[in-house]
Amino acid sequence: MENLQNKRACILESALELINEQGFHGCPVSKVAKNAGVAAGSIYTYFESKEELILGIFEYVSGKIKDYVSSKDDESLDFETRFFNYWKNYTDYFELNPAHHGFYDQFVNSPFHSEKSQIKPNAWHEWANQFFQSGIDLGAFKHINPTVLAILVNSNINSVVRIKNNFKNRFAEKNVNLEEISSLIWEGIKNK
Length: 192
Hints:
Blueprint: H1 2-22, H2 29-36, H3 40-46, H4 50-71, H5 79-96, H6 98-108, H7 115-118, H8 123-137, H9 146-173, H10 180-189
């Protein structure tokens, strides 16, 4: 069973790298199989179609994000500290896993992120919503729908990582600190 899980993970990681480099359309199943070192037919053992493979990658990446960010959340800390840790940990995850960020960024802006795919349970989104709901319950955040808070914060983190990746040298030259964005977001959502 473990060997099957390892092969599945190898296929997912191979597809992630290729999609990050070449986009969804530049990533046929045959290329994923070759990159993963498996027969093309093996991929269909785990995924019925390329669309199912891409949805599987989204589920895989979402689970990895949830595992990373949630494992670093310390509920004994005040919620302001937890918020900034959340921001840092989510940012760190994407910076440590650029192929995951590239995929996630492409996926949420693609036709694969359809109404059908959005109704499936998603461990990361559920955990993030619970995180923001607990902030509301503890009086740290304004009474705003936790899904709205998650979208606001997570989309800004995604943008900051993308901007850092694309304009790192330009911002370094101008002494721009993108981390100020997290403080601006905090000021806007904290319960005064």
